[in-house]
């Protein structure tokens, strides 16, 4: 850096811990305790030290603190996509919970759902000095049934098919699909058609399996499964096919976007909702109550999934010998005007 006359201009000297101590009127040891987040400093002194840090422009050396205490106060998140409502809300909850615990989050997207991609992301995060990793699976791995990762870091998986040895947090997909299907049966519908998500999706598979099992328990042979891709366009396309069949009186869609597409198709075909056809979605997105008619949907608590996942990871970071366990976050059926009694 040079001045206008070409002579070198010295960089401002970074504020030191001693500068903070002089400004706050405390010892350097007290400043060190505050900088390292230790609890043996009274509240008024801590506030004074923090104010002095801001006043003199002091920034604690996170890397040095990590080397000293063996913690980096950073967690990694591996995920395949940010395009789905659930993933965005879950990631938001992880970040909020991490911030409350004085942790930062490093996001590592992977290009395709393969074990090699996940392992590569895991190793890159390990090199970036994180204390633990959360893996969010939207799709099943194409080349492996169970997750296999190098040992060393605490891991929490948001999914219910991670295999043994991992702490898992997930929405109770089976409960939600059962509630949706049984609700339509209880309304007198003799059959329930299902618009499922992609074949590659774990959550779509869980919902479809539970839909099928609920019908079979009622002595009903499930109809052919209709696969969409989570989009309103795919729901619309399938809705046009199903809506032309007079025997179709109840549709359960695996997410609200596909339900919306199906409802548009039914409107265009002149079939009344719910007089002719009842429609139930899954997710209970914020806009579901604004559909016409307002959509009956299964509510997933994505924020609770993210919060609990971060909580479990912090527990593992504090105690690496904890036993792996699975936590399912309950789902809830929200009944609105899109579902009603079966036609006479």
UniProtKB/TrEMBL annotation:
Name the SMART domains for this protein.
HTH_LACI
Could you tell me which residue ranges the HTH lacI-type domain spans?
A: 15-69
Can the keyword Iron-sulfur be found in this entry's annotation?
no
- Do the record's keywords include Transcription? yes
Q: What's the domain of life for this entry?
A: Bacteria
PROSITE patterns associated with the record = HTH_LACI_2
The record's annotation in Pfam families points to: LacI, Peripla_BP_3
Which one of the record's GO molecular function terms can you name?
transcription cis-regulatory region binding
**Record InterPro entries:** HTH_LacI, LacI/GalR-like_sensor, Lambda_DNA-bd_dom_sf, Peripla_BP_I
Q: Keywords assigned by UniProt?
A: DNA-binding, Transcription, Transcription regulation
Its protein name is Putative transcriptional regulator
Q: Give the organism, scientific name.
A: uncultured Microbacterium sp
Q: What is the lineage of its organism?
A: Bacteria, Bacillati, Actinomycetota, Actinomycetes, Micrococcales
